[in-house]
């Protein structure tokens, strides 16, 4: 190879290396928070790419109020982004639920004076992803709360849907509704902790708070409107109806997940593309989750009929199960283990609504027809029994 050719060869290598390094740098460029201004005093901040959920921001004479706080380790970045809009004090953060991608920035925001607002169903949250990080200043509310701030009215509604501690937020004067992860433009369906009942409660509430001009802000990515909420509702109903009808015919979750109808619905929920994270196992689990949320075979019991079941039941190891009523629904709670709405299949048998496996509680009664013991079964196998120690 001549000196000239060698020189050209090495120059080519350097150019190729420079291009690749440049592309690599572009690929590794950290994600940035973007802004969507709704009106003179209200913005939506978009995270994504690991930064976390959409954030609502009200700026006015009283300071700054946020709806959600993005992901863990994003708090400082969020504050920096906010400071490009306003240097007013951040007074409040409303968390639409407790998952880390929505409340992760709480800690940094509390350090600079913010107060976090969320429902008081906290006692019944289980698992490692249920903490409200950094909550040293907080306001908890029961069922509903109204906050007047910046000449705006914020109506907060506690719903049990995506989690047990969800909040739907209406920004009334600006005609904006935040749905958290109960409705989405990039994923679905929301089967919820109470099955179709979860979905129905949320959608009916959101539609009642909306008109044709309402800006609907899902938990992530693109904004929506009332029409999209209606379409989303229709698709979720189709999802439930098809799966439950197929299940009644004896089809397995694997068979149902492989049908053209369910595949088409998944594509619609995810913007026309099957997401990489939705593996076959997760897809089948989502179908199973829906099947176990079936209320068609459940019997309806009034509050007075449910009340005798309530109380504390103690296991041999000293741990306890609490059976309680919330909003006329019977629930079971075992600390750090589970919270579940119970669907009555008979006077004795209650299924866990919307769980992925066949979780069930069976009650035993004394001669006065009063529940005295419960047994928890998983796929038919006894996991534990507990004896009642007091009434609810």
TrEMBL record:
Highest taxon above the source species: Bacteria
Signal peptide coordinates: none
Gene3D superfamilies: Ribonuclease Z/Hydroxyacylglutathione hydrolase-like
Single GO term (MF): hydrolase activity
Coiled coil: none
Family of this protein: Belongs to the metallo-beta-lactamase superfamily. Class-B beta-lactamase family.
Name under which the protein is recorded: MBL fold metallo-hydrolase
Source organism (scientific name): Aliikangiella coralliicola
């Amino acid at each position: 190879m001549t000196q000239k050719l060698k020189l050209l060869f090495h120059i080519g290598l350097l150019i190729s290396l420079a291009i690749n390094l440049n592309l690599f740098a572009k690929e590794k460029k950290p994600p940035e928070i973007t802004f969507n201004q709704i009106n003179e005093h209200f913005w939506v901040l978009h995270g994504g790419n690991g930064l976390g959920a959409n954030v609502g921001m009200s700026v006015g004479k009283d300071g700054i109020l946020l709806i959600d706080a993005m992901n863990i380790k994003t708090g400082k970045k969020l504050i920096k982004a906010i400071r490009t809009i306003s240097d007013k004090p951040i007074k409040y953060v409303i968390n639409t639920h407790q998952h880390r991608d929505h409340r992760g920035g709480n800690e940094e925001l509390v350090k600079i004076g913010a107060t976090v607002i969320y429902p008081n169903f906290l006692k019944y949250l289980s698992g490692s992803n249920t903490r409200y990080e950094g909550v040293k200043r907080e306001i908890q509310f029961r069922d509903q709360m109204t906050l007047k701030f910046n000449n705006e009215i914020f109506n907060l509604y506690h719903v049990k849907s995506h989690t047990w501690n969800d909040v739907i937020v209406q920004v009334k004067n600006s005609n904006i509704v935040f749905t958290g992860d109960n409705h989405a433009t990039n994923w679905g369906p929301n089967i919820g902790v109470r099955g179709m009942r979860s979905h129905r409660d949320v959608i009916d509430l959101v539609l009642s708070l909306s008109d044709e001009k309402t800006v609907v802000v899902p938990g992530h990515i693109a904004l929506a409107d009332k029409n999209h909420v209606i379409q989303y509702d229709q698709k979720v109903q189709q999802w439930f109806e098809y799966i439950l009808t197929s299940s009644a015919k004896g089809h397995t979750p694997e068979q149902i997940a492989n049908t053209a109808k369910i595949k088409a619905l998944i594509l619609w929920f995810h913007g026309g593309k099957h997401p990489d994270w939705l593996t076959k196992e997760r897809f089948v689990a989502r179908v199973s989750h829906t099947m176990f949320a079936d209320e068609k075979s459940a019997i309806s019991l009034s509050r007075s009929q449910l009340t005798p079941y309530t109380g504390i039941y103690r296991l041999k190891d000293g741990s306890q199960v609490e059976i309680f009523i919330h909003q006329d629904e019977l629930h079971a709670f075992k600390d750090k283990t589970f919270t579940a709405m119970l669907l009555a299949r008979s006077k004795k048998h209650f299924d866990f609504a919307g769980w992925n496996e066949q979780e069930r509680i069976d009650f035993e009664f004394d001669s006065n027809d009063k529940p005295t013991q419960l047994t928890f079964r998983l796929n038919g196998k006894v996991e534990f029994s507990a004896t009642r120690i007091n009434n609810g």
